[in-house]
Design a protein that fits this description.
Length: 503
């Protein structure tokens, strides 16, 4: 039942924000206080069908809109996002618990992808070869798919939707967004600004809900392509069901990102970078460093690194001294604390314990403090599972070769990094490592939007990745034309034209 004065998050269908007629609503809570911020609907069958019908109809005209006009919409949109940057970040922080600086980073990384979408005319250019045979030319066009969809997670409610719908729509598609039900207020504001930027009715739809709404998108014949970011089990489910329905799917899933520290690395840089990369954003990001592998004498740094991580304190989003915020839900907090308990039981050395964490003024927050384990081994569940909390597992290796073998044996391949002063060691690592995104003296190697987000192995299901050139290919089809014109058909330019054009 809805409480008085609790905002009900609208759907966005055919260019209008509409209140759902659903009987099923989900509470959106502030993870630092448990205050109910809003209620989000589980869209009805009729509402979902209306969104699809609108997207299909809008595609017929949007695909014919000149690419330069589509780019101008994105130019206006990125300007509005920059103008409202801090406002969006405050909304985001209130519903996710992220610190304000972290929330601003979330918004900014999304803006960078929109800026990339502004370059869509050059990204959609085809290829031409003259005289592939005598008097025959071949050339290709890049054309939109139709209706596309995106299913996004709670941890980046600005950045990840902005990974998806701006590029897809700039390519000439229409788009259905299903944001996380845990923090829908940020995507709603993004859509309001997109409408203000001049986006035509129907090019973007927003449906809220849970598994039933996701299944509708996966099964709906009109949806040609689906982009997803989330957990491994859900990613596998979406990839299987979507491809079984003959759809194009890119599913970004979990990770277990390793940072390899060589003994010749800059110690202060390692400590400073590893602290933020492991517990920043409460560890709730798929590119967080959750495993640090210390090679040789670098193992002597573990106690000092644990001591520095222990100094990081969680707090409210507007606390400038806070290193990170709460976990997204009480269930997430319990899951992380269970892993910490399990790690102890498995024999890992608990160097810093984040359980029973409290924050003044926020007695009901989903707090877990920074946590560090030593003597972690490959057979432990805390190593094998993605904990998705402010927990760092430390391991030791005798050589770079052993560290590479350890990382390559892991089923995930989202991101990794190495800290070293040796160009030869860095070259060997980047060449031999079986991970899609590699940092050298950089802890979290998230590429800028003119590249693509290229996770490997169990971290990604699909063929073409997010943003960059790969996303343009994901959201488009290539049409190749082979043409021959006969010189004998050239009209005699000297003959008088005796007809009158009545059109």
């Amino acid at each position: 039942m809805s409480q008085k004065n609790i905002k009900r998050v609208p759907l966005y269908i055919n260019g209008e924000f509409v209140q759902s007629k659903s009987a099923e609503w989900i509470s959106v809570t502030n993870p630092a206080t448990q205050e109910v911020l809003a209620e989000v609907p589980c869209a009805t069958q009729a509402e979902m069908e209306a969104a699809v019908a609108s997207a299909k109809e809008a595609f017929l005209t949007w695909k014919e809109t000149p690419v330069s006009e589509r780019a101008r919409v994105m130019l206006r949109y990125q300007a509005l996002l920059k103008e409202h940057h801090d406002e969006i970040a405050e909304i985001l922080a209130s519903e996710t618990g992220k610190t304000f600086d972290d929330a601003k980073g979330d918004v900014w990384r999304g803006i960078e992808v929109v800026e990339h979408a502004c370059n869509v005319p050059s990204l959609l250019m085809g290829e031409t070869v003259e005289n592939v045979a005598r008097n025959i030319d071949s050339y290709s066009y890049t054309q939109p798919l139709g209706v596309c969809a995106g299913i996004t997670p709670f941890n980046f409610p600005a950045m990840i939707p902005l990974w998806m719908f701006p590029l897809s729509i700039a390519c000439g598609n229409t788009f259905i967004l299903k944001p996380s039900e845990q923090d829908p207020l940020t995507p709603t504001r993004l859509v309001e600004l997109f409408e203000e930027a001049g986006a035509p009715k129907g090019v973007l739809q927003v449906l809220h809900g849970g598994k039933d709404q996701v299944d509708f998108i996966l099964d709906e014949p009109a949806v040609r392509a689906i982009s997803f970011v989330g957990s491994v089990p859900v990613g596998q489910y979406i990839y299987r069901r979507g491809t079984e329905n003959m759809k194009r799917v890119q599913a970004f899933a979990g990770a277990k990102n390793h940072c390899v520290i060589m003994p010749d690395a800059n110690k202060s840089q390692v400590i400073n970078n590893l602290v933020g990369a492991s517990v920043g954003a409460a560890g709730q990001r798929c590119m967080a460093i959750s495993v640090a592998v210390f090679v040789g004498a670098a193992r002597d740094w573990i106690p000092e690194i644990a001591a520095e991580i222990a100094k990081v304190k969680p707090g409210g989003w507007n606390d400038k001294q806070a290193g990170f915020g709460p976990l997204i839900s009480q269930q997430a907090k319990q899951r992380v604390e269970n892993f910490i308990t399990q790690g102890e039981q498995e024999g890992a050395e608990l160097l810093v314990d984040g359980r029973n964490c409290t924050v003044d003024g926020f007695p009901d927050g989903n707090w877990v403090g920074p946590t560090v384990f030593g003597n972690v081994t490959r057979d432990m569940e805390i190593y094998k599972q993605e904990i998705f909390g402010p927990v760092l597992c430390t391991m030791e290796s005798e050589s770079l070769e052993d560290a590479i073998a350890l990382v390559n044996a892991n089923p995930y391949g989202n991101g990794t990094s190495i800290f070293t002063a040796s160009g030869a060691a860095a070259r060997k690592y980047q060449h031999e490592i079986e991970v899609g995104q590699v940092g050298i003296n950089i802890p979290i190697p998230v590429p800028l939007p003119f590249f693509s987000f290229t996770g490997w192995k169990g971290s990604f299901f699909g063929d073409l990745h997010a943003y960059g050139k790969q996303a343009v290919r994901f959201y488009s089809e290539t049409k190749t034309i082979t043409a021959r014109w006969f010189e004998s058909d050239i009209a005699d330019a000297n003959a008088p034209n005796m007809t009158i054009d009545l059109k």
